[in-house]
TrEMBL record:
Keyword Membrane: no
Protein's name in the database: Alpha-glucosidase
Organism listed in the record: Algibacter luteus
Keyword Signal attributed: yes
An annotated Gene Ontology molecular function: carbohydrate binding
Classification via Pfam families: Esterase
Domain of life the protein comes from: Bacteria
Length: 394
């Protein structure tokens, strides 16, 4: 026991020197700082690998140089300055294909930390790495989920992206046309084997909803771009994270992807029957898409929107809020970051003050809601029911 304590003390001394230099290099100053020390790792972990921390404080990029942990012997360490009262985070080996997970390979919920002390230390145990391998994670996608394209080209950004499509259970047996939902972070929409943080179970939920109400919906899930996610989901440049590419990404959905979806499937292509949805930065983007192109997207599911990331979104909204037909569903959790609920409420108030039809806004805060796929999954059915006015269609 004494030897273990001595080693741990030595690590802390070495780490204080390393992180002091790192903080100077990054010119990060804060009144509160937490030190994360990863001291327990999987038995097969290769200490040549780099470890990163990724979370809502840096846009869930999956791993960037600024948030790479320092190596001290067989331990990884990093100082995180206070960015907001509460942060959500995970550890990766540089991208979401190499994220920490449970022993059986299944996703874990986001970690959460609240800044209480001026200086704090958190000891972390990582049970397993996903490493992009199946690891006893069979696909959970329903039979009516199809891969539309493994590498759909985005000419506006010169990139490729996987697109998966959910079709209603009765699609093959009818000649009906269906409304369409475009949803962000496609890795987490249908299938636990492709998710890095759990899945929304959109397919199972919609299959059940179809059985209960007869409602059918086509869902187009667009995989995010890993390290490009933070740029693609914001229309505004960010001093810390770089150029916003949301305008080009939106142009891709509207002018490249949507025409192909409308050609391939029996869609109702007008704005009244076209929705967009996302969470976190995906929520910010879905909000932007609807406010920017209300003639394309008549409905938006805005889950845990990262308005903190782009204060410009408030000024942007003032001149565009006088919408009468568009519907928006805002969802936040009481246990998310400190300004999540406040920002969403301020945005809703701003919209109403500038002419948005108040009857077409639904604002919900769940007291125990956390920034995670499990939370958004639990609220998806209610959001779809409200957005498509299913209760009044019975």
């Amino acid at each position: 026991m004494k030897n273990q304590f001595f080693i741990f003390f030595l690590v802390l001394i070495q780490f204080s020197c390393a992180t002091t230099q790192a903080q100077t290099e990054n010119t990060i100053l804060a009144d509160k700082v937490v030190t994360f020390i990863v001291k327990d790792l999987p038995k097969n972990h290769n200490f040549k690998d780099e470890v990163f921390i990724s979370g809502d404080f840096e846009g869930w990029t999956g791993g960037q140089e600024l948030f790479k942990l320092k190596k001290v012997k067989n331990t990884y360490l990093i100082n995180i300055p206070k960015d907001k009262e509460t942060i959500s985070y995970k550890f990766t080996k540089g991208n979401w294909g190499n994220v920490e997970c449970k022993l059986d390979g299944n996703p874990i919920d986001n970690r959460i930390y609240s800044f209480n002390n001026t200086k704090d230390t958190v000891l972390v145990s990582i049970l397993n790495w996903n490493d992009g391998q199946p690891q006893n994670k069979p696909s959970t996608a329903s039979e009516n989920v199809h891969i539309f394209s493994e590498e759909f080209f985005i000419p506006q950004l010169n990139r490729k992206r996987k697109i998966s499509v959910y079709l209603p259970p009765n699609y093959e047996t009818t000649k009906s046309h269906y409304p369409v939902l475009y949803i962000q972070d496609g890795q987490n929409v249908y299938d636990v084997s492709t998710s890095y943080s759990g899945e929304w179970e959109v397919d199972e939920t919609l299959n059940t909803l179809h059985q209960e109400t007869g409602f059918g919906l086509i869902v187009v899930a667009i995989n995010h771009g890993n390290e490009k996610r933070i740029n693609e989901y914001s229309a505004w440049d960010n001093v810390k994270y770089g150029k916003g590419e949301g305008e080009q990404y939106l142009d891709f959905i509207i002018n490249t992807l949507k025409p192909e979806i409308d050609k391939a499937f029996r869609t109702k292509s007008d704005a009244e029957h076209t929705a967009i949805m996302g969470s976190s930065l995906g929520g910010l983007f879905s909000f932007y898409a609807t406010m920017s192109k209300p003639e394309i997207f008549g409905k938006a599911g805005v889950f845990s929107p990262s308005f903190w990331f782009a204060n410009e979104s408030f000024e942007f909204t003032k001149s565009r809020a006088n919408l009468k037909e568009n519907r928006m569903y805002f969802l936040t959790g009481g246990k998310e970051s400190d300004n999540m609920v406040e920002n969403a409420r301020n945005m809703v108030s701003l919209m109403k003050e500038n002419g948005f039809n108040s009857e077409n806004i639904h604002e919900k805060t769940v007291a125990n809601g956390i920034h995670s796929e499990s939370f958004w999954k639990s609220e998806f059915k209610e959001a779809i029911t409200w957005l498509f006015n299913l209760n009044n269609n019975k």
